[in-house]
Amino acid sequence: MQTFHKVLAAGGLVGVAVIGWQMTRKPPVSIPVNVAITVADTAGFRGYVLGSDSAPVTIVEYADFQCPACENFDGVQWPSVYERLVATGKLRWVYRDFPLDQIHKYARLASHAAACADEQGKFWQMKQKLYTYQASWSFGTGQMGKFREYAKAAGADGDQWQACMESARFAGRIEASLQEGNRVGVGSTPTFVIGGRLYPSSMGSDEMARIVDSLIAAMPKAPAAR
What we know:
It contains 10 helices and 5 strands. With 226 residues, it is α+β, with helices and mostly antiparallel strands. A 5-stranded mixed sheet has the order 1-3-2-4-5, sandwiched between helices. Helix 3 crosses helix 10, helix 4 packs parallel to helix 7 and helix 5 packs across helix 7. The longest helix is centred in the first third of the chain and has 23 residues. It is elongated and about 100 Å long. The termini are far apart. 32% of the residues are buried.
């Protein structure tokens, strides 16, 4: 009889634990595709911008956080591009989301994770984390937990970031970026728009610097002061 009561009590404790877990666990997060785009989604936002507003050249990068070629560009070429072109004032860089949903099932979720970090002024730090650990989150499960850790490591408040993710409030912004890329002819990632032309490849920093310098050289010179 004592054994029966012990088993009954243990079962009750398990039941309470399960109910407690169900009450405290984080709800699943998904980011809708083909969402209706509102004016608020794009008002005042044309991508994530880095560099001086007075820079003579602007490059727009359309990229997918789960794309291996994008990860390669970010890890190998981007540091040199930033040092040689952005930091020197020659270049203004604009990052745009272009999630390839058909082949990268977590790309849109990653884009939203970066958008929620941007809400706290941590986009570029989160971008680096997502690309650095791309191999870790691109497969298997537990993406939300990993993204949350990346956001915290990037300097964002975890609870605020989590609430942003659960709201999916930047879904329209991501869809607008994707549709804009489609309109200008983006078909793969990364694709760069430089001087009104599309460069659909993972371009090296030397080639990018050559194009930027040639565009600057071709610009009309200001008349000399008298």
